[in-house]
Amino acid sequence: MATYLVISDNFEPAKRGETLTDEQLAGTDIQALIESGHLQFADPPLAPPEPAPIPVSEPAAVSEPLTPAPDPPPVVVPDLGGVIPPDPVPTPTPVPADGITEAPVAATEQE
Questions:
Q1: Which domain holds residue 33?
Q2: How many domains does the chain have?
Q3: CA–CA separation, 89 and 62 (whole Å)
Q4: Judging by beta carbons within 10 Å of its beta carbon (0-12, 13-18, 19+), is residue 3 exposed, middle or buried?
Q5: Is there a domain that residue 7 lies in?
Q6: Would 60 be classed as within a structural domain?
Q7: What value does the mean pLDDT of the chain take?
Q8: Is 8 inside a domain boundary?
Q9: Is residue 74 part of a domain?
């Protein structure tokens, strides 16, 4: 059960400095009365509960010792004499004036 201290002179159920319980304030919006400055909590705030300890498991047994991975082989780069060859540029295909890029299908003989 919570108790509240009246901190306003303009509060009808009680005078400033009196304490009221939540049972005495039943049917009222206690949160609105606190936010509007008529009441404040009279009870000391409770300390948050201690968190539960995290269980610690034992490390798994290692059957053989771990060895580091071997170094990767070195990358061999050919000596180009400081010249980087250009990327091949594709040659554009010319487009005919009529816009048709496919060759016409030859007429076949009908039987």
A1: 3-41
A2: 1
A3: 56
A4: middle
A5: yes
A6: no
A7: 76
A8: yes
A9: no
Report how far apart, in Å, the C-alpha atoms of 92 and of each of 73, 74, 95 are.
41, 39, 9
* pTM assigned to the model: 0.39
pLDDT attached to residue 56: 79
Cα end-to-end distance, the chain, whole Å: 104
Is residue 100 pLDDT above 70, yes or no? no
SS (H, E, C) 38-92: CEEECCCCCCCCCCCCCCCCCCCCCCCCCCCCCCCCCCCCCCCCCCCCCCCCCCC
Q: 16, 4 in Cβ contact below 8 A? A: no
Structure confidence by residue, pLDDT tens digits, 36-79: 998 888 866 556 678 888 887 777 666 777 778 888 887 777 77
